[in-house]
């Protein structure tokens, strides 16, 4: 029974920050839908969390494929009829220190498809479930590398551009969305994960805690902001 439980959907939830987000939301009493493109790994993660007596389920979704996103939204609507929290966590970093001008365009295209167009289609597909009740919290997991100040530094060009676009979309959508539906971006910091590597300064648990704050803000909370460790940071 869902009852009055808030419902959250997390993309890329089978590992790293995404897994911690699912876990911490469930501990706080959410019904959490863990999403990933690899269904085997997704179900394995769900079973691990269910073993902790947490209310977690799985919905397959590949953020690179619009049909997959739309089908996931249909499935969530049919099962629950609403959505309270959406966290766009899935992302890739594949360009290394290569200069944007020298990069194979396919690398930029792939990065933009996952890190920008994916979250855009996810929001478009799921926001009707929030508009039903006039309530929702959307969090886009971004990066300080997507800030304008980082554009004068060479390297990681595709990743930077994708997160810059994600930040811009966050600000723009905040002006368009009506009701008590808030959208914000978060820089989780340098996190120890498959993407961040083993020497990063923050753990997935620490990064998730800062993101959960935006998932639980009240009607007086921020909208269209960019945050790190619960504090505003420069675009």
UniProtKB/TrEMBL annotation:
- May I ask which residue range the UniProt record assigns to the signal sequence? none
| Record GO terms (molecular function) | oxidoreductase activity, acting on the CH-OH group of donors, NAD or NADP as acceptor
Q: Write down the Pfam families for this protein, in alphabetical order.
A: adh_short
Question: Gene3D superfamilies in the record, alphabetically?
Answer: NAD(P)-binding Rossmann-like Domain (3.40.50.720)
Task: Note the InterPro entries from the entry.
Answer: CBR1-like (IPR045313), NAD(P)-bd_dom_sf (IPR036291), SDR_fam (IPR002347)
**NADP among the record's keywords?**
yes
The superkingdom listed in its UniProt entry is Bacteria
Q: Which UniProt keywords apply?
A: NADP, Oxidoreductase
Family membership, please give it.
Belongs to the short-chain dehydrogenases/reductases (SDR) family.
What is the official name of this protein in its record? Short-chain dehydrogenase
Q: Which organism is it from?
A: Peribacillus muralis
- Which classification does the entry list for the species? Bacteria, Bacillati, Bacillota, Bacilli, Bacillales
């Amino acid at each position: 029974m869902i009852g009055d439980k808030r419902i959250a959907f997390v993309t890329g939830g089978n590992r790293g920050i995404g897994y911690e987000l699912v876990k911490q939301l469930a501990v706080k009493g959410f019904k959490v839908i863990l999403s990933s493109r690899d269904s085997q790994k997704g179900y394995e993660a769900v079973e691990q969390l269910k073993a902790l007596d947490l209310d977690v389920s799985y919905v397959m979704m590949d953020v690179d494929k619009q049909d997959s996103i739309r089908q996931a939204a249909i499935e969530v609507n049919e099962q629950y009829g609403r959505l309270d929290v959406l966290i766009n966590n899935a992302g890739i970093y594949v360009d290394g220190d290569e200069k944007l001008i020298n990069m194979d365009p396919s690398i930029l295209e792939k990065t933009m498809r996952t890190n920008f167009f994916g979250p855009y289609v996810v929001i478009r597909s799921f926001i009707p479930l929030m508009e039903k009740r006039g309530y929702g919290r959307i969090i886009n997991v971004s990066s300080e590398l997507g800030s304008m100040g980082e554009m004068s530094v060479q390297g990681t060009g595709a990743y930077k551009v994708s997160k810059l676009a994600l930040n811009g979309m966050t600000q723009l959508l905040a002006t368009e969305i009506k009701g008590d539906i808030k959208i914000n971006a978060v820089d989780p910091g340098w996190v120890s994960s498959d993407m961040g590597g083993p020497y990063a300064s923050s753990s997935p648990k620490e990064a998730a805690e800062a993101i959960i704050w935006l998932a639980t803000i009240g009607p007086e909370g921020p909208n269209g902001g960019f945050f790190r460790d619960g504090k505003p940071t420069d675009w």
